[in-house]
Amino acid sequence: FRIQIAPIQDANKSTVGVVAVLRDITDIRRLEEMRKDFVGNVSHELKTPLTSIKGYVETLLDSKPSDNIYNSFLNIIKEEADRLQRLIEDLLNLSKIESHSNYKSKEDVDIVKIIDDTILLLESKAKKKDINLVADLNLSAPNIQADQDQLSRLMINLIDNAIKYTPQGGKVKVSVDPKEEKLILEVEDNGIGIPEDDLPRIFERFYRVDKARSRKLGGTGLGLSIVKHIVEEHQGNISVESEIGQGTRFSVELPI
Ligand code: ADP
């Protein structure tokens, strides 16, 4: 609590009482803590690839490496630079959505087309892992009022995660169905699953079940927090069910 006290005086300036204002600042404190955590996390996430890039460049400058070593170091440097780029793009995306600065008036959006386009975009990534990427799209799904770019981003993040966290030879299924006044989008995989204890936290910025695995797969830890913001921006709901070793299903409900 923050307490402010002020005296009450009568016409003769003698104090006849006091006013005490107690303000509950738990929320303000919590937000401040979250902001500090976020800045700390961002700094750390940016610093790690940069330190690695500097290290490899310095080694190359200081030594006369063989062609093999030279090429393999250059590849690592490129991967780390790509990682920085993805991170910065995700941070910009997140900040745009959070500040509503890219707010466009909502337009008529054909979700079936968005899903088709996303599948086309991610098909080759699925093929590389021999993952069967299938769509079960109810073609009678009506258009909804939405931000087209944001819905594309939402589908990309969910399907990309499903491919990332599903082992070789697995299956990812995307479906859309109208139900009552809602459109139900589902992305289901038969991948590694998420432990029950982690489920409530996966939408937090930078939260990852297995940091090393996410990093190896090129994750930034921001994908699902971006998804959650987009869903909220569209007055929708997102839920997740998962079982370790069996798979994961994300369901998004959007108002029609
Ligand atoms: P990342 O960039 O690490 O993938 P996200 O915000 O997209 O970050 O997801 C947060 C974490 O949730 C991931 O690191 C992963 O541990 C878990 N996760 C997300 N989607 C899936 C999925 N389909 N199967 C298993 N785990 C998942």
UniProtKB/TrEMBL annotation:
The keyword Amino-acid biosynthesis does not apply. Member of the two-component regulatory system PhoR/PhoB involved in the phosphate regulon genes expression. PhoR may function as a membrane-associated protein kinase that phosphorylates PhoB in response to environmental signals. The chain holds residues 334 to 589 of 589 of the full protein. Its main location: membrane. This is Phosphate regulon sensor protein PhoR. Keywords: ATP-binding, Cell membrane, Kinase, Membrane, Nucleotide-binding, Phosphate transport, Phosphoprotein, Transferase, Transmembrane, Transmembrane helix, Transport, Two-component regulatory system. It comes from the Bacteria. The keyword Hydrolase does not apply. One of its GO terms (biological process) is regulation of DNA-templated transcription. One of its GO terms (cellular component) is plasma membrane. One of its GO terms (molecular function) is phosphorelay sensor kinase activity. Residues 41-256 form the Histidine kinase domain. Residues 1-37 form the PAC domain.
